[in-house]
Amino acid sequence: MKKIGFLVVLFFIVSCSAVRVNYDYDTKTDFTSYTTYNYYPDLVSGLSGLDEKRILVLIDSTMQAKGIQLAEEPDFLINIQSNEFKAAQNNNVGVGLGGSGRNVGGGISIGLPVGQPKLEREIQIDFVDSQKEFLFWQAVSASGFKENATPEVREQKLREIVDKVFNKYPPKAN
To answer: Is the pTM of this model over 0.90?
Structure first.
């Protein structure tokens, strides 16, 4: 019985910190023509300086693994934007009071929020054709975020985000 309770708690913790990603792309794009990339020269990611450095290193290694090279005159540019927000609380406790008598009834119910709002971070990654200047691929990730996390935890979380974001790049042909 203790093992089941532990597994339920573990599942709840893991599911709350999952990275969620939404993708969009131009279906007419020939992704095989994009073999080199670079970042916008005026990149303002919204990440801390250290987190920005971490994500750039992770993106670079992921792109190299996909055979796409960093170049001074790239086929496309990468833009990164990030913001943090407090997620809406889904946890609440209901308190009810009711009574009834002869053909008379009544009740009161109120919901009380439980716990602190969860801090979330959204990171948007855009691929923009450097010659034609049009957006051809975009991924938006959202995940839990802890401001006071250790550098190792921050890097691991960013690694999870980059892995999941680039898991579906390039998109599979329909």
So the answer is: no
